[in-house]
């Protein structure tokens, strides 16, 4: 893109404030990686789970597209237990339309998380082909991944977490992993067709139909703490999902981190990506919701996105909820990776492209300058590395005195000006 001196000149006079580093403190119950194999062994050794796995059975294990803590290790441990029982495990990607809605793209996502056949010790069968297993209570056809449908048993491995676009007793978790993840492109389209306002109805409706008509044995669900660490592992039998998943969701919500200042003028997000959130940046943190059916996160006038994560492979979904971004982000966008997800979920806002500025400094400047009714000489700016890791963040000088006595905030530095290089990008 050619230089735009006139545009740059319009914001060049906007001064940026000094910033200081803080550490946010959250509760930190966790299971260390070295403790995970024994934890899963102890869960699955219980009779009601172990007795369902018979020698010679073909067992499908789901793996999703989210950046779940220790996901490769958890998958490996489940597969290892299945083998120990004399059965034959294999992994299926359960990620709806993600990965560009292709088998190759979904396998590549698993590989990027370390879920490879060599590491987990069993085959990975990636396909977009689905098979009808029955109908739900409203007579709608129910389809799931063909390999899973034809297996002797299915183990649903997933994370339970508040959703980014709707609220209900079943959000991101076991039911959704079955209804949308195992449903592939078809299942994702059907569940999203009526919009997020109906998602709290359709996710459990399709999920319950799959529990009744597919060979689902049980689920292994993980809950994470505010530091993106495994906080809890739970095994949930197929006939317990409807009862127990809402309880797990409440636990997950209680473990969620948040930005401890409630409002800002400009939120600066260093990176967005599918590895941080299905929405690129988790609106439960950033307040950038794609629908009116969920609320929360910090309240801001402007959101500035500086970069994409390498792990998102050009999928910049969520960028559309930013006010401004950089030429660096624009150059990395892979529209073929972005658009299938947006079209499938019927929400196009996340793939819109905001104002594009040449550098980090200009992107932040244009956000500050276009805020209304603020003190532009002393704006309230919050800077986070991404929406998943918010222990260490930065605040502008206007917050300094206000957070000094906060019991869950530790000030780590004095206010200093942001270090931009000669091109106006942050070091």
Main beta-sheet strand count, sense and barrel state: 8 strands, mixed
Tell me what portion of residues adopts beta-strand conformation: 15-25%
Number of strands: 15
The computed structural class is: alpha/beta
Strand order, main sheet: write it out.
12-11-10-9-13-14-1-15
What is the typical, i.e. mean, pLDDT?
93
- Gross morphology: globular
* Rg: 22 Å
Distance between the termini: 22 Å
Low-confidence stretches: none
Helix percent band: 25-40%
Count every helix, treating DSSP H or I runs of 4 or more residues as helices: 16
Description:
This protein has 427 residues and is an alpha/beta fold. It has 16 helices and 15 strands. An 8-stranded mixed beta sheet has the order 12-11-10-9-13-14-1-15. A 5-stranded mixed beta sheet has the order 3-2-6-7-8, with helices on both faces. The longest helix is centred in the middle third of the chain and has 15 residues, at 199-213. It is globular, with a radius of gyration of 22 Å. The two termini are 22 Å apart. The model has no long low-confidence stretch (mean pLDDT 93).
């Amino acid at each position: 893109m050619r230089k735009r001196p006139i545009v740059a000149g319009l914001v060049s006079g906007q001064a940026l404030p000094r910033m200081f580093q803080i550490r946010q403190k959250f509760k930190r119950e966790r299971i260390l990686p070295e403790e995970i194999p024994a934890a899963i062994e102890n869960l699955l050794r219980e009779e009601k789970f172990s007795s369902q796995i018979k020698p010679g059975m073909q067992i499908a294990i789901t793996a999703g597209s989210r950046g779940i803590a220790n996901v490769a290790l958890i998958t490996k441990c489940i597969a290892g237990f299945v083998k120990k029982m004399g059965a034959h495990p294999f992994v299926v990607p359960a990620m709806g339309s993600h990965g560009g809605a292709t088998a190759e793209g979904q396998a590549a996502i698993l590989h990027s998380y370390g879920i490879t056949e060599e590491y987990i010790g069993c085959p990975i069968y990636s396909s977009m082909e689905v098979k009808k297993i029955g109908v739900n209570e409203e007579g709608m056809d129910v389809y799931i991944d063909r390999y899973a449908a034809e297996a002797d048993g299915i183990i649903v491995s997933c994370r339970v977490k508040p959703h980014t676009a709707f609220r209900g007793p079943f959000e991101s978790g076991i039911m959704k992993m079955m209804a949308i993840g195992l449903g592939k492109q078809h299942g994702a389209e059907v569940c999203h067709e009526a919009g997020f306002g109906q998602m709290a109805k359709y996710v459990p409706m399709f999920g319950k139909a799959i529990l009744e008509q597919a060979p689902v044995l049980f689920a292994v669900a993980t809950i994470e703490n505010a530091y993106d660490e495994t906080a809890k592992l739970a095994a949930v039998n197929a006939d317990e999902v409807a009862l127990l998943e809402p309880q797990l969701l409440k636990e997950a919500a209680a473990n969620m981190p948040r930005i401890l200042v409630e409002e800002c003028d400009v939120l600066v997000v260093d990176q967005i990506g599918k590895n941080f959130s299905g929405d690129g940046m988790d609106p439960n943190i950033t307040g950038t919701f794609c629908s009116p059916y969920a609320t929360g996160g910090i309240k801001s006038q402007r959101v500035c996105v500086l970069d994409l994560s390498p792990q998102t492979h050009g999928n910049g979904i969520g960028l559309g909820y930013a006010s401004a971004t950089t030429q660096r982000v624009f150059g990395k966008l892979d529209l073929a990776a972005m658009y299938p997800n947006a079209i499938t979920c019927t929400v196009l806002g996340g793939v819109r492209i905001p104002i594009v500025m040449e550098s980090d400094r200009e992107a932040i400047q244009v956000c500050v300058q276009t805020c209304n009714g603020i003190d532009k000489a002393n704006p309230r700016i919050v800077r986070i590395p991404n929406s998943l890791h918010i222990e260490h963040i930065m605040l502008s000088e206007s917050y300094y005195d206000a957070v000094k006595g906060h019991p869950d905030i530790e000030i780590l530095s004095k206010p200093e000006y942001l270090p931009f290089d000669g091109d106006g990008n942050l070091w």
